[in-house]
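Sample A.
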Amino acid sequence: LNNEDVNSEDHFEKTDKNLIVKGVDRPLLGEYSCWTGNAKLSSTYLLQETEEGEDIDSLLTCHAKSYDCNFSCSWTNSRYAVVRLGIGPECSKGQRSCQWVSSSGQLENEGFQFELYHNLSPFAEESSMLEVTAEAIDNHFLLLRKTKLFYLRDIVVPDSPQIVSSEVVGQQLSVNIKPPSSWSTPYSFFSLEHEIEYVLRDDGRTERSLSSLIPKRISKLRVRCRDPLVLSPWSHWTPWKNVRNSCRCKKQKKSKLPSRCLEHCKKKMEERTKDAKRSQGL
């Protein structure tokens, strides 16, 4: 038991190759192994299930980047040495048919990261909840089994979108935004709502807009997105992107200037001409 020879007759009974544990208590929990010389033949764990511990929502958090067939879960409590997850009623009932999933990596806070898969159709209305069961073993060989129920739509949080370009349209700036590469396709079916945050160049005020058309005179902008049908949480903001006036008026033929800059440069030249006349007293 836990690398120590089993000798006590008060708690154990040996019958041929079988070992019977009597009056199971915490000191008798752990790994039982069978040896011949220095060779380990087999082992099994004797655990005690407990209802102790925090609520499952504080232990296990799940999120999906889209409505595709995969999603991620994080186990954030470092008290437990081993954790595994399973999907479906077979796992919540502890049946042998459960397909358990081991951790795909360890978090910085000594928790665990999992990659899970489901068979829900992304194009059908979601009527059944996902059933994720966690089994965790702490350092005292106590087994914690808890089940978390949720709809896929409740854990969807898109990645940040992409700012493709911006173009001056009259007195406004039109921002071209592209969905994140991880988002479900086709985009015509899986629509996204975008919000733009921008800083005004004149007074430095920060404002937001749900329209792709924003004031022209801004110094920088950033964008985030969400699913408008289920009002999912917003994605993270993109990094700030500086916005510069792309219309540079130089001494060149008008035909070489972009059409959107002609009016801008014409007004600028008129202002310079007026300023020059004032300074000459004309």
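Sample B, a different protein:
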Amino acid sequence: MKSELSTSTAKPPFDRVDADVILLSSDNVEFWVFKVILSLSSPNFENMFWLGSSQKSHSETSLPTFEVSESSTTLDTLLRLIYPTTTPTLHSYDDAKDFLRAVAKYNISDDALPRAKELIAAQYLEEHFLSIYALSCRYGWKDLAQRAAMESLRLDVLDRNVPYVEEMEEMTAATYRRLLSYHRACAAAA
């Protein structure tokens, strides 16, 4: 069990001793955070705190501790998106995909969601447009899907040599068909 392994504490600002809750990542890093900040940014966090699901008692304090399935890297990035005065950073596209999944999972508020999309687009849209298109369609983010589709015009997706990306496994045939139709329409207009 995760809680039996040794834990470490996250980097500032997620190490505050005046925090009122601890999030424990899948790799046993404790994030000492404030319920109100997370609850205002995510109805899923609010429900988790209200319902007390996954709550454990912290051995050294009386703070409630909630185990989450995200790694410390993903949780750190997600919390930096939510917390005021912090800026998230992504070190790889794999981190970016995990971050997008966490943003969707916790149903991050409309205030923070555009920042998350822009962070992904600025760093990864040019190189990973097909993957971002698939993920954006899956999560219903039409604006980011549209940007990825526009970026995809650099590649002839009507060609048989379309690169395979893992996210194609999660993409519906209808989603891919819309991308093909978009390419046909753009080619006809050109």
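Observation for Sample B: The chain has a mean pLDDT of 89.
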